[in-house]
């Protein structure tokens, strides 16, 4: 796990830690929170945000912290935007969608074209953890999200999936 995440400048701005009453300002603030949550979790390859245990809610350097209600507002916006989805009914764990399934599908297909996988086969494991995917948006991606992206490609007629002996050995042939 990477420990060198660089917090953006706005993270040190005290009003960032209070949901703003002005709707235009709040929309910009929520966009910044989405950006921060995504970049932090993607850089650290964290797939699930545990709401009560997220270090982003508190900036000790400026002695500011989101209130419990403001955390709910930020996470609700994050989920509504399509960048997260609840893993439980109590809304304590949120799956981070590093990229939306449609974006991942596009990234995967571009990767397949660039790396000569059109009319060739690779495994889900290779897409998830192979050497050829280092630095790609789907490198280390949540397997369920990866499979959703592949299902989109399959629906578009750009690939077909077939069963392997284990789930990580499931194959994908790109067209």
TrEMBL record:
Is Transport a UniProt keyword of this protein? yes
Where do the coiled-coil regions begin and end?
none
Task: Tell where it localizes.
Answer: Cytoplasm
Q: What is its main location?
A: cytoplasm
Claim: Cytoplasm is one of the keywords in the record: yes
Report the domain of life of the source organism.
Answer: Eukaryota
> Could you tell me which InterPro entries the record lists for this protein?
ESCRT-II_cplx_Vps25-sub, ESCRT-II_cplx_Vps25-sub_N, WH-like_DNA-bd_sf, WH_DNA-bd_sf
Q: Name one GO cellular component term.
A: ESCRT II complex
- Report the sequence similarity comment from the record: Belongs to the VPS25 family.
The name of this protein is Vacuolar protein-sorting-associated protein 25
Organismal lineage:
Eukaryota, Sar, Stramenopiles, Ochrophyta, Bacillariophyta
